[in-house]
Design a protein that fits this description.
Blueprint: H1 2-6, H2 9-16, E1 20-23, E2 26-30, H3 38-53, E3 59-61, H4 69-77, E4 81-82, E5 98-101, H5 108-117, E6 120-123, H6 127-141, E7 145-149, H7 155-166, E8 171-174, H8 177-189, H9 193-200, H10 210-213, E9 217-221, H11 227-245, E10 254-256, H12 262-277, E11 282-286, H13 292-302, E12 307-310, E13 316-318, E14 321-324, E15 333-336, E16 345-351, H14 357-371
Parallel strand pairs: 2-16, 3-4, 3-5, 5-6, 7-8, 7-9, 9-10, 11-12, 11-16
Antiparallel strand pairs: 1-2, 13-14, 14-15
Helix pairs in contact: 6-7, 8-11, 12-13
The structure holds iron/sulfur cluster (SF4).
Iron/sulfur cluster binds near residues 38, 128, 223, 224 and 293.
Amino acid sequence: MLAESYHSAIVDRIKADDFTHRSGRLTVHLAREFGFCYGVDRAVDYAYQTRQRFPDRPVFLTGEIIHNPHVNEKLRAMGIRFLSDSHEQIDQLGSDDVVILPAFGVTTATLQQLDRRGCTLVDTTCGSVLNVWKNVRRYAEGGFTSVIHGKVWHEETQATASQAVAYGGRYLVVYDRAQTTAVCDYIRGGGDRDAFLRQFGSAVSAGFDPDIDLQRIGLANQTTMLMSESLEIGDMLRAAMVERYSEASLADHYQAFDTICSATQDRQDAVVALLRERPVDLMIVIGGYNSSNTANLARICAASRPTFHVADPDCIVSATEIRHRPVGATAEVAASDWLPPQGPVTVGLTSGASTPDNLVGAAVARLSAISG
Ligand code: SF4
C-alpha cells in the first residue's frame, strides 16, 4: 500500500541515470539525498499498520503526522481522524480509541492527557527526536537550562521544551543569530531583565529568570534546523560563556551535543554538493510550507540560485507561471517568467524529508511538459 501511494518509477529511473533527467531542452539534476527520511518512513508505515491492526476502532492522530498535506489527506481518506480539527477533543476519548503520536513527538502534557483517557497509543516519535530529549533531560537533571535552537511554534520544539520542564529544568528557544546575540549580550554583561523577558515572550519556561537561568546552559536543536546556523549559534554561546566565566570553568557553565539528525544533515549536504557540482540555472524545492527541513533546504539554495519552494507539483503551472513561497515569506506568491523561454535550461531539484517520491516524479513530469 505504501509503495502504491508514494513510490515513483520516474524517480527510480532518474536515480539509475546518475540522478539526471533529460527531455528536450530541459535537464533536471536531482540531489543525491532527498525526500522521505527514516523517521518519516517509519511514522507513515506505523500509521498504515495501525489502521489495519485496529479496523474496528476509532484511530486518531494528534495532528499532522508529518508536514506534508498529501500524506495527511491520504490518512484522512483511510478514516483516521485528527485531534487538531476543531470538532475533535481529547477529553472525549476513551479506552476504545487508538491515538498515533507523530514523528516529531508530542508535549508531555498531551501525553499525560491521552494516558489519563486510557487510549491505546502508537508512538511514532523518531529516534533522533528521542535523542534530543535524552540530552535535554540530562541538562535539566544537571541544573542546566536547555537553549533550544528551533522554532518556538513548531511541534517538535514544543515537545522538546516540555521535556526540560518535566524533568525540573528551564528552557529558552532561540530562532536565529540575532536572538542568540541578545542572549550572549545578557550572558556577558547582564541587562534589562524585563526587556529580555519581553523579547523572548513565550520562548522561555514559566518563571524564567535570565540572571539565574543563563548561568548554566546546554545547547539542543530542533532536529531539522540549518546545521551551519546551529553550529554558529553554539560557537556564539560558547564564546559568551568563556568570556563570562573563563575557559577553565566552561564545563560547569556550558554543554553541547550535536542533535541535528543525520537525515536532515544528509539532505543539506546533498543540496550543497548539487549546487557546487552541477551547472543549475534555478532550483525547485518540493515540500509542505510548514516543513522546517524543506524551508531550510530552500534557504541554502536561495543563497546562490533563483529558488522556488513549491508545496506541490501543481504549483508549477506553466513556463510563465509558478506558485511558490519565497524564502522568509509567510505566504505563497505567483511568479511569472520564471523559466527561460528558449534554449537549454538546467533545473536542480530536491525535496524535504516529509515529501514522498511520487510528488518529485510528478514535478519532473510537469517540468518536462511545460518546458516543451
Ligand atoms: S527529519 Fe530527522 S528527526 Fe525528523 S523524522 Fe526525519 S529522521 Fe527523524
